[in-house]
Amino acid sequence: MQAFNIHEAKTHLSFLIDNAMKGNPFIIAKAGKPMVKVVPIDFEETQKKRIGFMKGKISIPADFDAMGKEEIENLFEDTLL
């Protein structure tokens, strides 16, 4: 990823934004220190999509609600004694 100082970024901003929209994000730096990263808005939104990311990779047993029922009951019975 390329970095540009503020003056250079101001001078070539239209060109840099066009390139960012084509998938070439860039960094604007001040005195050599990176300050901001410029990426297309739709790029960020697609990266944050997480709902359903494990679909088809895990399964929940049919008796999920009853798993460990006896052990849990025993733990409560032990505390009541």
Main attributes?
YefM-like fold, alpha+beta, 3-stranded mixed β-sheet, elongated, 3 strands, 42% helix
Structural overview:
- This protein is an alpha+beta fold.
- The protein has a domain at 1-41: YefM-like fold (3-Layer(aba) Sandwich).
- The chain is 42% helix and 19% strand.
- It has four helices and three strands.
- It has helices at 6-11, 13-21, 41-47, 69-80, and strands at 2-5, 26-30, 33-38.
- The protein has a three-stranded mixed beta sheet.
- A hairpin with a 2-residue loop joins strand 2 (26-30) and strand 3 (33-38).
- The longest helix has 12 residues, at 69-80.
- The mean pLDDT is 86.
CATH homologous superfamily classification of the domain at 1-41: YefM-like domain
- Number of E-state strands: 3
Number of helices: 4
Elements, N to C (H/E) = EHHEEHH
Derived structural class: alpha+beta
Which topology of the domain at 1-41 does CATH recognise? YefM-like fold
Q: Proportion of β residues? A: 15-25%
Task: Please name the CATH architecture of the domain at 1-41.
Answer: 3-Layer(aba) Sandwich
Largest sheet: 3 strands, mixed
Distance between the termini: 66 Å
Q: Choose one word for the global shape.
A: elongated
Q: Whole-number radius of gyration?
A: 27 Å
Ranges where pLDDT stays below 50 over 5 or more residues in a row are none
Major sheet: arrangement of strands: 1-2-3
